[in-house]
Amino acid sequence: MERVTLDFPTTAIIHRHSLTVRVTDMNYGRHLGHDALISLLHEARVHAFAALGLPEWDMKGYPSIVADLAVQYQHEARWPDALTIETAVPEPEGKALTIYQRICNAETDKVVATARVNQLLVDLTSGRPVSIPDKVKLAIAQARGA
């Protein structure tokens, strides 16, 4: 079986967000379900970009859409585990923002999962992806300390 392997870019971290596994996040295996994990990633990603003044629905004039998602599951999480979700964004290339997220158990430091999302900014008039605006690139670079 081929497994997804993702390398989290620690030098590109722009935000850290704390969340707790809720009882409603549990699946029949009594651990964090994959659907809930994706929701936690989305919550942390929204907070990360909002902290930069870039809400996902208006990134300097353009809404964003998720083009694809890859997740590498590494350890289980259970209710009521405290989690830290780190969001990292390398220098944007072309028309995609590649966003990495790493979920860690805040008490044990074990990595629960690593994810990569490619997001596109879309011109609502044409419905087509646009190049990442310089103002977006600058906000991300400043958050990385670059």
UniProtKB/TrEMBL annotation:
**What Pfam families is this protein classified in?**
4HBT_2
Keyword annotations? Hydrolase
Look up the domain of life of the source: Bacteria
Entry-linked CDD domains: 4HBT
Q: Which residues form the signal peptide?
A: none
Gene Ontology molecular-function annotations: fatty acyl-CoA hydrolase activity
Q: Which family does it belong to?
A: Belongs to the 4-hydroxybenzoyl-CoA thioesterase family.
How is this protein named in the record?
Answer: Thioesterase
Q: Which organism is it from?
A: Vreelandella alkaliphila
